[in-house]
Design brief:
The structure is a single chain. With about 240 residues, this protein is an alpha+beta fold. It is built from two helices and 13 strands. The longest helix is centred in the N-terminal third of the chain and has 26 residues. The N terminus is likely disordered.
């Protein structure tokens, strides 16, 4: 009897098992985000009139669904989040430097008390010459994106998905997974695990930060505007 079909069947079984094992491994490490999600049915991060946002008076506004700021002042959610997926689009100008803030425990002193996913115009020499952890898709000051210039040139819309599951923070930028951080590895406030220096104003070890907090967006920082739209959020079951 020809045994080739049995071999093919065996290979198929082994292949399926391998795929399943890989999926289980990915779930165990928190690396579950492979691309951007279908956000149908998700909740908006902010109401169109910003009535549910914590924002400084007269700084943030929405026009035709696009959110922007006139000053370097953050907008935050009024309620804290843990275990969630945040999906959004952003557009830079020349020299833009902004960010998405997660796990913020202190809105007034947010810089050392949160995780900032960097948004920057990597095509600008001003930011391209800075450390990689200052460039787009990085966890600012702590973990560079896998590569730079994944962000599009100014004036084009980009898509970003940030997944926060306990201490695991994952960033997908324009369809490419660029950053996966295990907060537990950042036990120093002075040195990153790779030996690089942490900016002095990030004065708390990431490992000590809470894995629940407010979500925010940085305003018109460094004199260059930033625009956001289609901000959607989905909460995830607690582990």
């Amino acid at each position: 009897m020809n045994t080739l079909p049995h071999c093919l069947l065996a290979l198929a079984v082994v292949g399926a098992a391998g795929i399943l094992a890989a999926a289980v491994f990915a779930a165990d490490t928190g690396e579950t985000v492979k691309g951007h999600p279908d956000t149908t049915g998700w909740q908006p991060l902010f109401a169109p009139d910003l009535s549910d946002a914590d924002a400084p008076e007269g700084v943030w506004s929405v026009t035709d669904g696009v959110l922007t700021a006139t000053e370097d002042k953050n907008i935050f959610t009024k309620k804290p989040y843990d275990n969630f997926i945040l999906d959004l689009e952003f557009k830079t100008a020349e020299g833009t430097n902004s960010g998405v803030v997660v796990y913020c425990s202190d809105k007034k002193k947010w810089i050392p008390n949160s995780i900032e996913i960097q948004i920057a115009d990597d095509w600008s020499e001003k930011w391209a010459s800075k450390p990689r952890s200052w460039q787009c898709g990085a966890v600012f000051g702590h973990l560079p994106a896998a590569r730079n210039k994944v962000v599009k040139k100014p004036g084009q819309w980009n898509r970003m998905t940030v997944t926060c599951q306990g201490p695991i923070v994952t960033v997908v930028l324009n369809g490419e997974k660029v950053t996966v951080m295990d907060m537990r590895k950042w036990t120093s406030a002075k040195k990153n695990p790779d030996g690089s220096d942490i900016p002095g104003w990030l004065s708390r070890p990431v490992a000590e930060l809470e894995t629940k907090g407010y979500i925010g967006l940085q305003g018109k920082h460094a004199g260059a505007p930033i625009w956001f739209r289609n901000l959607k959020i989905k909460t995830l079951p607690s582990e």
